[in-house]
Amino acid sequence: MVPVLAFLFLYRFGANRYALPTYLPDRVDSTQVGGKWQRDTVFHQIQPFQLLASNGRELTSQSLGRGVWVAQLFGPDETSARVARELLQVQEKFRQEPLVHLVSIVLEPGPAPVATLAQLAEQYGTIAGKWMFATGPADALKQVAQQELGRAAQPHQLLPVVGPNLPPGTLLLIDRDCRVRGVYDGTKPREIDRLLTEINVQLYEYAHSH
Questions:
Q1: What is the pTM of this model?
Q2: Does the residue 3 lie in any domain?
Q3: Cβ contacts of 20 within 8 Å, gap of 6 or more
Q4: Around Cβ 95, how many Cβ atoms within 10 Å?
Q5: Domain carrying residue 160
Q6: What is the sign of the dihedral through the CA atoms of 83, 87, 89 and 90?
Q7: N or C end: fewer C-beta atoms under 10 angstroms in the chain?
Q8: For residues 74 and 167, which has the higher predicted lDDT (pLDDT)?
Q9: What's the number of domains the chain is made of?
Q10: Sign of the dihedral through C-alpha 48, 117, 66, 193
Q11: Domain CATH for 135
């Protein structure tokens, strides 16, 4: 609570130096403003995807709404399970906030994906429409897990990184423009606290943007 209050005070009464960073620069463009050339970084946007959600419906980047979403790559390991348990407090914190969603992307759904997703949703006590387990065919998972989310493991590299580079337990905060705004180690309580704070920071920016 203290970090959030400190941010709100500084945001209102001081210079806004506490806006969240944007990760995954794609390229640097040069634009002419007032007769002078300026360099402008263009950041990567998560490309549209289609996955199957635990509620049996199609999950797309568009269906996540115009808020923020927390993404987890969920594998058959204890670290993924541990981080999923940590996500329960994120779900509880924002259960009444329609602009926040959680998505756990299941990388190995097994021979019965729908049953697997439903079982995971029940096991972790997800709230329908708030936190979704999702999966898809191999090509769709490769797109999301490697070409898109996996790149966040090396946020300062300008060239695209292809490969499952996210360490186990990593959580990503994605904004309404499908840009990565935070990278967290979901196995550490302090990182979960930082995630909670930075979700509030992003929501505050949305509420006070013109």
A1: 0.80
A2: no
A3: 173, 181, 182, 198, 201, 202, 205
A4: 11
A5: 20-208
A6: positive
A7: C
A8: 74
A9: 1
A10: negative
A11: 3.40.30.10
